[in-house]
Specification:
- The protein is of the alpha/beta class.
- The chain is built from six helices and 18 strands.
- The chain has three domains: 4-96, Beta Barrel (Elongation Factor Tu (Ef-tu), domain 3); 109-214, Rossmann fold (3-Layer(aba) Sandwich), CATH 3.40.50.80; 226-309, Beta-grasp domain (Ubiquitin-like (UB roll), Roll).
- 15% of the residues lie in helices and 31% in strands.
- The relative contact order is 0.13.
Length: 316
């Protein structure tokens, strides 16, 4: 996994009733590892969960701080609640070095589509491009209401459309996506219904022009059943289409540690000894993908796969 840093919260403030902004800095004032727009970090929250959060500033070679925004989800598994409840100015948190599975690629023009808290990586991209004087950078920012819109005052320019669904209903995206354009890259981040809509409406676009990042890293490809062989003892574990590899192994009595169970922390990484992998996580480096997989979201790309403990984990 990526190296870990211990950073101190130097600012914590509410942007909306449900979204809080956290500024993380080195306690000794040093520069932090570099990152580019679209990157995220994995934060170990006080409750012990690991959660991935997009970096909302444009970044660069020697950033002095990492800034994340966390939307409180009272129906979630406790990570966001712990960030809101337990983290204040002065709190020290273990944070991964940045990783980027949603990089900003060169293009003559851009169309950014953000839904709710999905604005976080999009904001970093838009700010980087516009700070460099780029034109042709359009933004569609979809939220429930003005009161629930982080950074609302930043996006009032002629190329920005901020749409609140309360009283207006959903925005019709078709006029913006009806005509494919190879000079435009479409970047979208937001909740699953928005992602599905954009995928459907861009089916006639060249696939290389469409870039998506969901809150969960799990891919949307078809899930097929496969068999996992647990290398330490040879036990064969069926993994049905509706069950993750992580869940199937646990049902079979194999202990595998996990935290986020959304493909963004890498805690449940396993060594792959044989077979093909359909990688669906957002944390693995190219090197890690050559010989391992994240069991909570990734699946076999072959009928059978042989896996075992990763690195220093002890066989079960």
């Amino acid at each position: 996994m990526s190296s870990e840093l211990r950073l101190r919260v130097s600012e914590a403030a509410d942007l909306t009733p449900a979204v809080r902004r956290f500024v993380l800095r080195d306690p000794d004032g040093g520069a932090l590892p570099a990152y580019e727009p679209g990157a995220h970090v994995v934060v170990t929250v006080p409750a012990g969960h690991k959660r991935g959060y997009s970096l909302v500033e444009p970044g660069g070679a020697r950033p002095r701080e990492y800034v994340v925004c966390v939307r409180r989800d009272d129906a979630g598994r406790g990570g966001s609640a712990s960030m809101h409840r337990d983290v204040t100015m002065g709190t020290e948190l273990v944070v991964s070095a940045p990783a980027n599975g949603f990089p900003l690629e060169p293009s003559p023009r851009y169309l950014f589509i953000a839904g709710g808290i999905g604005i976080t990586p999009i904001r970093a991209m838009v700010r980087r491009l516009r700070a460099g004087g780029r034109t042709g950078v359009r933004l569609l920012y979809l939220t429930r209401s003005a009161a629930e819109t982080p950074f609302l005052d930043e996006f009032g320019g002629p190329e920005d459309t901020v749409h609140h669904s309360d009283g207006h209903g959903p925005l019709d995206l078709w006029p913006h996506l009806a005509v494919p354009d190879d000079d435009v890259r479409v970047y979208c981040c937001g909740p699953a219904p928005l992602m599905r809509a954009v995928r459907t409406l861009t089916a006639h676009w060249r696939a290389s022009r469409i870039h998506m990042e969901e809150f969960r890293a799990a891919g949307t490809g078809m899930s097929l059943p496969f068999t996992a062989v647990w290398a330490p003892d040879g036990r064969r574990v069926p993994v049905p289409a509706h069950l993750s590899l992580l869940a199937a192994l646990r049902r079979a009595g194999v202990r595998v540690d996990s935290s986020c169970e959304a493909g963004v922390c890498g805690t449940c990484r396993l060594r792959v000894l044989d077979g093909e992998v359909d990688h669906r996580d957002a944390v693995s480096t190219e090197k890690e993908r050559l010989g391992s997989m994240v069991a909570c979201v990734s699946r076999a790309g072959s009928p059978e796969i042989v896996v075992g403990p990763y690195e220093n984990e002890e066989p079960v």
